[in-house]
Amino acid sequence: MSTQISAYISDETRSQIERLVRQRGITKARLIEDALQHHLAAQREIPDDLVLPVRLTLTQASFEQVVAEIETDTPPSEALRELMRVDG
Amino acid sequence: MAEVVVRPLARSDDRSDFGCGDIELDRFFQRYAGQNQFRHHIGNTYVAVDGARILGFVTVSPGEITGATVFEHTRKRLPDYPLPILRVSRLAVDHRAQRRGIGKLLLRFAFRLALELRDRFGCVGVVVDAKVTAIPFYTTLGFRPLEAMQGALGDRPEPLPMFLAIRRIIAALE
Fold it and tell me: Which partner for A30 in A26, B61, B79, B110 could form a disulfide, CB atoms 3.0-4.6 Å apart?
């Protein structure tokens, strides 16, 4: 059983696909499925320990709190002062 | 005893003997911290060392925070892009070096990196991914818990992301 997907890709990628298809004598569908399987296998090989997500998306309320924090002159806690005091 | 210093992880560092008591953190440090740093370049680890012996480590990476949706009045106050942060994703101290201030030394080092990041590229604060047992400690420093919808670490048990504004760190130095 198979299903159809569609996707917009760059002209550069399209050229590379068409070149490879001609060289290897395989269909575009075969090439794309192989590429996706390689990608999914690589994803499975990466342990969670290696993943450091770049972007943290917060709830609206939590993000508002962050914005308030970065705009407010709240004095540092004594523990923070103490931590930073040690090496000046 | 030699002076304890904090420096970048080196390929030649022997990480096999490190043990902090948390099997996940030990596994990360022994098996993946080097890959992160030297092969994938997706996070840097700094080690506190006493001579050749590794006493603790902290792993950091630049990141960004954003809201799933942002109120109009907030949007007007901020630039229309995510806020840059330094993320302290992992910090651990070898069990033989605990209660010597190594964790605080590493955290202070990470704060200094955040200040450097602010000066060079921009940084509004530090996000730590706090283990449950460390949440009270970070709270005393002024960190606030975050409610993440996406981008949390995949560790188990799941750590709590917490935020400290860079201006508070600056104020603590004054």
Answer: A26
